[in-house]
Structure formats: C-alpha cells, structure tokens
Amino acid sequence: MRKKLRKLITFIFCLLSVLYSQTVSPSIPELIDQVNIDNLIRHVRILSGEESVRINRVNTIITSRQLGHPDHDMAAEYLKATFKEYGYSPVEQQFYRGTGEICNLLAAHPGKQYPNQKYILCAHYDSINLFPNQPAPGADDNASGIAAILEAARILKNIETDYTIVFALWDAEEKGLWGSEHYAFNAARDNDTIQGVINLDMIAYDPDDKQLFSINIDDFANSIDLGNSIYSISNTYIDSLQPIIYNPGSTQSDHRKFWEHGFSAVFIGEAFRDGADYPFNHYSTDTIDKFNIKFFHNMSKLALATITILANIHVSDIVNDFFLEQNYPNPFNSSTVICYTLPHSSFTTLILYNLIGEKVSTLVQKVQPPGLHQVHLKVSDLPTGVYIYRLQQKENISSRSMLLIK
Ligand SMILES: [Zn+2]
Fold first, then answer.
1. Among the four given CATH numbers 3.40.630.10, 1.10.287.3510, 1.20.1250.20, 3.90.1150.210, the one describing domain 27-311
2. Measuring CA to CA, which residue among 42, 225, 53 is closest to residue 146?
3. Which of 110, 144, 364, 378 is a Cys-bridge partner for 335, taking CB atoms 3.0 to 4.6 Å apart?
4. 338-391 pLDDT, tens per residue?
5. Cα of 198 from ligand 1 centre, angstroms
C-alpha cells in the first residue's frame, strides 16, 4: 500500500514538473507556432491605412508615416499602445534634427542572467513617398518588419531569456538613418554592451514564391558569425525558407549605423539581388496586396526564432532536470525536432533505433553543457515506421518513440 502511494506521489510529481518545465521553457518549434498571421496582417493593414484604428478615443486612418505628416505621430501612438497591450513599458527616445522632432520607440525584455548585455531586434517605422503630396503607405517598407517585431514581443512577453532583448522601432530611416544613428552613437559613447543587432527591413515581397531571403553581413565586429548563426537557425527551424548570404551586404538600412559604430549587426530582408527587387517602395503603391503572405509569415517566424535563440531561453534550476521531450512534429514526414534538457555538462548520446533495436543513426555523441538542447532530424533514406530515440547522459537514460510516415 505504502509502495503504491509512493509511486503515485512520484508520478504526480513527474507530471507536475513536466507541466512546469513546459510553461517556463517551451521548445523553439512551439514558440514559432505561435506567430499568428492574422496579427501580422492586421498590424500592416493599420499601419498602411487599409484599416482604421482607435487612437486616443478617435477612429483614425494612418495614411502616411512620413516624417512631418500628422499621421506619422498617430502611427507612433499605435505602436506604443500595442507594446503596452502586450505588457511592456515602451520608452521614447526623442531628439531634434532637421526641421523637427524624431522619436525612436524602445521596449525592453530584461534578461535573467545577463541583464546588461542585449540583443536588439529592430525595424524602422517611418515611410516615404517620392511624391511628397501622395500617401506613403509603406506596407512592405517597412510595416512588414514592424509587424514581425510586435508579434515577437507579444509571444516573448512571459518567456524568460538570459540576455536582454530590446525591441527597437526606428524613426527617420528614410531621412538617412537618423533614428538608428542617434541610438548607435549614444550606445557607443556609453560603452553599451550590444551583443548583436538584427535589422528587419522589407520582409514580405517574394513574387516567384522562391522563399529566398537575404542575410546581409560585412566584416564589422562579429557580424559575419551572427549572419552564419541566422543561416543555420533558418535551415534548422524554418524548413521552407532559403537563406542567401550577401557579403558585402546592403548598406541601405539602419544596421549600417551599428556597423559604423563598431557593433555586430545583420540586415535580414528580401532577396533583392535574386529576383525580388521590390518595384513599389517609396510610392503610394507599396500596399499589402503585393505581399507573399506565406513568405511574410515565414520571415516573421525566423525573426522570433533568431532573437529567442540568441537571447537564450532561460533554463531555471528546476527545468535543469534531465528531460527528453516528445519530438515535434510527430508523426512527421521528412524532418522533426527533438528537444531535451541536461542537468550538467557531460558526455551525452542521442541515438536513433528501429523497432527491432538496431541502431539507425547517432544524432549526438559529445560533451554537452547543461540546459536546453535541440536536434534537427532530417531523414531521406528511412522507411515508414516507428523509431525509438534514446538520450543518455551518465546514469540518466530516457527513450521516446516517433512515427515516420512517408
Ligand atoms: Zn525601409
């Protein structure tokens, strides 16, 4: 009787710790799944004047985000209100240049382990029309990048990360990168520890549905390494996207100001050198009907995956129990992801077996640090069937089964 009770208590404890670990630290595929295309589209429609929005108790249509246009400030109000709705306290970074006031919008997600070291996910929110009296909807340039950041901020609100994330929305990019210049100049002067800057600018145009995108890097600080990380994150988590590295990359957006001030920065955008050079930017025809929605959705997922992996999902002590998660997706067709947490740094193996116990593949065989790990499994030569994957670190062993359907 007592034995049964002990078993029951152990079972409940295990169940609770599993539930707890999932709420604290979801896997990257689970997070990516939360990127909601309806939210992305709504942000773009509002920011490009296709849909009205209530700002300061008045229904407003944002026809232009061009500096000096009254709707520009309405757009800033909408962005601040959205950050607040998602639980952040946005800060305005104001300064004067040219004929008026410029206003960057910053929302911080503080890191648990290294609060003073930050990664910046950024995009410019101003727009421009080469014919100044016409509306400047700027749907692709750059409501698309802004929408991806707002969605990442929403999803990450209650997810703990080791490093601080700053969601930065720059003003006056179209004037000559004024907003980002102001920020980068001050950051360099104050010896800010910026680990990396990810700049999103125009992430929705893909006319031939090639799902190609560019990672723009150059030899400043660790920008090349940062670009290579994004390349591998894309290949690991966003199957249908095809990254291309442009080195030297474009200098035509806000990341350049971080390069100039000695920071690591990467610009992610359309494959403009490979058939996706957007013909509508800086005209009133830059509207959402030009979008490839699937590409826009994928790019927004990539932005979230990138900033989450760079800032390192925080694995608290209780989650550092040895734990092997169910692979995702399961059943799967050609690729799946296996996540697990390790309690300490030690020699670790993850091996795939078929149902009669034959070793099919060695997925991991090395010393690994404690914390959350992911293995991306791609199979092309295996037949349909049930497979067992077995994780071992010292005395800890755990197995689960997965179903491959071809
Ligand atoms: Zn732009």
1. 3.40.630.10
2. 42
3. 378
4. 999 888 777 889 999 998 899 999 999 887 777 788 899 998 889 999 999 999
5. 14
